[in-house]
Write a structure and sequence with these properties.
CATH topology of the largest domain: FAD/NAD(P)-binding domain
Strand content: 15-25%
Shape: globular
Number of strands: 17
CATH class of the largest domain: Alpha Beta
Distance between the termini: 28 Å
Number of domains: 2
Helix content: 25-40%
Strand order of the largest sheet: 5-14-6-7-10
Order of helices and strands: HHHEEEEEEHEEHHHEEEEEEEEEHH
Largest sheet: 5 strands, parallel
CATH architecture of the largest domain: 3-Layer(bba) Sandwich
Number of helices: 9
Structural class: alpha/beta
CATH superfamily of the largest domain: FAD/NAD(P)-binding domain
């Protein structure tokens, strides 16, 4: 859970509800945790990230899962076994590896981002403490959930002005249901390789459904938090240049506006690119890739026998729901069943 703990801000809220959990057995669920600690589900609407992190710790404790503190710095494969080198110099040998690289190393930036002066720009995945933005003029590039939620959090820390620039229209802010995901995850378990045997039009339909609920619509609870004169929205607009002018950073917009800013936040999302995952660097030339995604079998196994890859990196072969907590139990079930067959 290091990404959730270290790369998500205090005050952030989940877009899912208490019915999404981590347990494939359906025992140590989020709802079971809330019941045990005496929190009614309607008291966490929306779900604060701190409550979910507490659930994750509770889940680990009940399952006896011990997380090692030393990260894997390198993973190699000799054709029979894997060897993982940890940050403290320790080596672990294994016959199979399950990699869940998440999204940490898949940050997406616009081309002009690399001309931003040092210390001025940061992706949302790296900017999680906002105290030093008090009194600042902040430009947020992007217009989906992270853009508007970071804007709200930064505004609540006392930023002077926040400009939100995005190429699309202003999204809707409404309460939506994610229950439609349940049937898709059930199908993933019931029919091996379910996603890849769907017709192209059906995959497009499902992807569009995710887009409409998750991208064209943002959370209703943001509305009152964005209702101050700190916020300025620039829909249908893009940044075309960043330059320094007499010590100030100036953003030139496609509509002719010029903004003087102190900080730039890139709420520009993530795009899978497996070679960017440091510990997989030594194996990437052996893993079949398509557009940065690994090619996986029906149990998440890559072209290297014994190397399983799940999470966001598996969305190409398993569908967009693999980027969500909801799919964790199903993915774990398929991977463990495959591992047991190998035993």
């Amino acid at each position: 859970m290091s990404f959730w703990k270290q790369h998500m801000p205090e005050g952030m809220c989940l877009r899912s509800g208490p019915d999404w959990h981590l347990d494939a057995a359906g025992v140590h669920t989020f709802e079971a945790f809330l019941e045990e600690v005496g929190i009614a589900p309607n008291e966490v609407d929306p779900v604060p990230i701190r409550v979910f992190l507490d659930y994750a710790t509770w889940f680990q404790d009940h399952k006896g899962v011990v997380a090692r503190e030393n990260l894997v710095t390198q993973l190699t494969y000799n054709g029979k076994k894997f060897e993982a080198l940890l940050g403290n110099g320790e080596q672990i040998t294994a016959e199979a590896v399950v990699a869940a690289p998440g999204i940490r190393h898949f940050q997406q930036l616009p081309p002009w981002a690399y001309s931003v002066p040092p210390g001025v720009g940061a992706h949302t995945g790296d900017l999680v403490h906002f105290e030093d933005l008090r009194g600042a003029r902040v430009l947020i590039v992007g217009g989906r959930q992270s853009a508007y939620e970071w804007a709200a959090l930064i505004g609540e820390q006392g930023a002077e002005r926040i400009d939100i620039v995005h190429r699309h229209d202003v999204p809707l802010f409404e309460r939506v249901s994610w229950k439609f995901v349940d049937d898709y995850v059930d199908s993933m378990l019931a029919v091996p390789g379910w996603w890849r045997v769907l017709s192209h039009s059906e995959r497009e339909r499902i992807a569009r459904q995710f887009w409409e609920v998750g991208r064209l619509t943002l959370e209703w609870w943001l509305i009152p938090r964005l209702a101050t004169d700190q916020f300025h929205r620039w829909p249908g607009t893009s940044v075309i240049d960043i330059r320094e002018d007499n010590g100030a950073v100036v953003a030139d917009l496609s509509n002719g506006e010029r903004l003087s800013v102190d900080r730039i936040v890139f709420a520009t999302g993530y795009k899978a690119n497996l070679p960017n995952v440091p510990y997989l660097g030594g194996l990437v030339d052996k893993v079949d890739l398509v557009d940065g995604f690994p090619v996986l079998d029906e149990a998440f196994q890559s072209s290297i026998a014994g190397l399983y890859i799940t999470g966001f990196a598996a969305t190409r072969d398993f569908g967009p729901f693999l980027g969500f907590t909801k799919a964790c139990p199903a993915a774990a079930t398929l991977i463990v069943e495959s591992l047991l067959r190998r035993a």
